[in-house]
Design brief:
Number of domains: 1
Number of strands: 7
Oligomer: single chain
Structural class: alpha+beta
Order of helices and strands: EEHEEHEEEH
Radius of gyration: 14 Å
CATH topology: SH3 type barrels
CATH class: Mainly Beta
Helix content: 10-25%
CATH architecture: Roll
């Protein structure tokens, strides 16, 4: 059976090649446009990792509640760690998670701008 294609705003899982073999895959948010996610010739996607370490208040971390994500615990997007991965490297969640809104993704994009040293847009 073919794997479903990740869509913008969805939470999937990713196992970085630098992680130890016994470490579980990490949740990530797909932030590529739908034009990229749906294009069969596009082999890569932009993702941002989520963290459960929400006690750190950083301008590049966007907090997410369990109600927004469908995950069991609060989390935060780590916008400073935006990266490109192959579509094939993403693992579909075992149970349905929520899809984040375009508004929330644009809020994350502003945090990426901050991580790059660019001022917020007015």
């Amino acid at each position: 059976m073919a794997q479903r294609t990740p869509q913008r705003g969805e939470i999937w899982y990713f196992k970085p090649p630098t992680d130890p073999p016994d470490k579980n895959p990490r949740p990530v948010l797909v932030v590529s446009t739908d034009a990229v996610t749906r294009n069969p010739r596009a082999k890569t996607l932009l993702i941002v990792p989520l963290t459960g370490s929400v006690e750190k208040e950083m301008p590049t971390h966007i907090p997410l509640s369990p109600g927004e994500t469908g995950l069991a615990n609060p989390s935060a997007v780590k916008a400073e760690e935006i990266t490109t991965v192959s579509k094939e490297s993403l693992l579909e969640p075992r149970y349905p998670l929520r899809t984040l809104s375009g508004t929330k993704i644009c809020e994350i994009a502003e945090a990426v701008r901050l991580a790059m040293g660019c001022p917020r847009r007015l």
